[in-house]
Known about the structure:
Blueprint: H1 3-30, E1 37-39, E2 45-58, E3 61-72, H2 81-85, H3 95-105, H4 110-120, H5 127-143, H6 145-155, E4 164-176, E5 180-181, E6 197-198, E7 201-214, E8 225-234, H7 241-257, E9 262-267, H8 271-279, E10 287-290, H9 292-307, H10 312-327, H11 331-343, H12 351-365, H13 372-377, H14 385-399, H15 408-422, H16 426-443
Parallel strand pairs: 4-9, 9-10
Antiparallel strand pairs: 1-2, 2-3, 4-7, 5-6, 7-8
Amino acid sequence: xxxxxxxxxxxxxxxxxxxxxxxxxxxxxxxxxxxxxxxxxxxxxxxxxxxxxxxxxxxxxxxxxxxxxxxxxxxxxxxxxxxxxxxxxxxxxxxxxxxxxxxxxxxxxxxxxxxxxxxxxxxxxxxxxxxxxxxxxxxxxxxxxxxxxxxxxxxxxxxxxxxxxxxxxxxxxxxxxxxxxxxxxxxxxxxxxxxxxxxxxxxxxxxxxxxxxxxxxxxxxxxxxxxxxxxxxxxxxxxxxxxxxxxxxxxxxxxxxxxxxxxxxxxxxxxxxxxxxxxxxxxxxxxxxxxxxxxxxxxxxxxxxxxxxxxxxxxxxxxxxxxxxxxxxxxxxxxxxxxxxxxxxxxxxxxxxxxxxxxxxxxxxxxxxxxxxxxxxxxxxxxxxxxxxxxxxxxxxxxxxxxxxxxxxxxxxxxxxxxxxxxxxxxxxxxxxxxxxxxxxxxx
Length: 444
């Protein structure tokens, strides 16, 4: 690029920023209250007290706004009509810049947000201002979770033009800024202190989803097609209680509003998940499916235990029974017979024998949820990959980066932003947030 052209583009950008700041200030001035008194919704009269300047940060750089302040005769907090009209009560960033900051902060660290905005704006918010935005928006979403859900359900409901409803949840560990017992062998080299408490505790966060699908038209060559999905995510809590309530509530709402030929709950083989599902009335009548790929992983462990690691026999047996498990009716029952037959060749009580016993128990306990040939014939999804991917994209990519440790509240604030983003419901969420903060400003 010609240096003179580059310089001209830079000058043009600066000139446009100046024009836009001037235009913005003109719009703000039109929102100012010129009368000497204002009356609030309660009928209280507020009289003009003084003018005061305030710095606002806009998309076009910082501006100084001179606002007229009003106060009731009895004293108390001043009202600032122009702040109320422009959505700037207790704000430094304009709403457009606050949205961009929150949007980026849901995906990047505050330092990265600051650097990214500095590339495209005259002045980026500081790292402290960015952290304040993320905490404010995330805390609002947390304290008003019921209202957020109602607003999103009203303006961006789950698409129900489908014939399969799928619910699922899973967990992934996150690093918490909490003490935890040190695990593993103590240090053996002299001079190394033997710590008994670690500064980081790894606990399981939960991610849930409710999705609508079209069943596969030709199960031999197609898979179920996802139409829409709602995600939910919670920092570690006892028994994932809040997450399960959210998934159950969304499932009930979908069942009440839509008509589905199939209802499916899809998860891995953890006993606790299936215990909770069995006790939750909303999932009564659902087809319960253990994720096929978790089943295949257990099948791989069984093959290694039966025939040894990296042996041709283990590979051959695994491939044969993986195909049968997926395509043959009654495949899991036949698999258990094969496991029993080959286990008899192992020394009873040996490590490999105990491993096979464990895998036999896994397939026996989950047999009723492993009719993969039947599920495929109905065109249903048999893999929990979407919710496992959500664990990585919603939680892992943002909360498990190198050196990160979180408080439960701080991590939840970020998850409250990532969930509507990943669910493609950011607009619905942000519109609620603006309406909520405007309401707070009026009530103050």
